[in-house]
Amino acid sequence: MSRRAEDQIGSIADTLLQPTSAAGVYARTALFERVVEGLSGLITRLREPDAEIFRFPPVMSRQQLERSGYLKSFPHLLGSVSCLHGEESDIRALVEGRDPDQDWVAGLSATDLVLTPAACYPLYPLVATSGSAVPVKGLLFDVASYCFRRERSFEVDRLQAFQMREWVCMGTPEQALDFQTRWKFRADGLATKLALPHTVAPASDPFFGRAGKLMAMSQLQQSLKFELLIPVHSEELPTACMSFNYHQDHFGATWGLVTDAGAVAHTACVAFGLDRLALALFATHGLDLRNWPKMVRETLGFDREGYVTTSERPRYTNGTTPRGNTAVTE
Length: 330
Hints:
alpha+beta, 2 domains, seven-stranded mixed sheet, 12 helices
């Protein structure tokens, strides 16, 4: 990435995101969330009929995630919830530092919770608990969650904590594969309406270790994953902002999901990286929403809702400037 491009995306990020003391974890400003909300509304309007809606918390069952295979495939990205356990006297001794040889962190132990790595992971065991077969027409879902992945680097488009929206299809192999293919092509039209330069290309997940390299090669060879790539930083290293994934029978076999015909259900999902899509829009069209192309504003519903976004720095009544650099007013 060129120095100019790096400075540009850095300047945009400084306006939209406020850093915390943790790398890759940011507070979102009103302007940034306004665009995320516009994207969320657009995704809702594009959602296929009969989709069941679930909104998951940022944590899920550790046992369920292990059973789903995430621990073996992506242990380097997993985040676990740990707590202090024991008697009050033991915990108090730790937090007050009475033992100079033992930091309180050493007293932590894992709970039965992990941080949700993708919005669809809690869905499969939830559907399995119903005990019902997947009907002939298949099942569609709209799920969302704040997610966590322990990334090695913390560029502004590769956060540790991020917002994910997903559509999920469960059914026959033909239904799942058609769902992936259908939305892979529709995404091209979506990106065009948002006036975002883009390509759709085969991709693989960041599987762990040497065996993971073979899994990634197999994923590519079978065309199981595609990504919508947008040059947020540069054309040479575009950012994956959407993905289109065909899981075959992995989750169906893992969770005992079967069709009405008694066959193991296949699944597919379309994932929207809301933070990355918002950054891509700002990187492409600038910080002032009033200057965005009319087609983009209409697609996101800004003109219809009558919101006006300014790039002038607001001030409190005492004359001080808020931490955010932009204001959103009605």
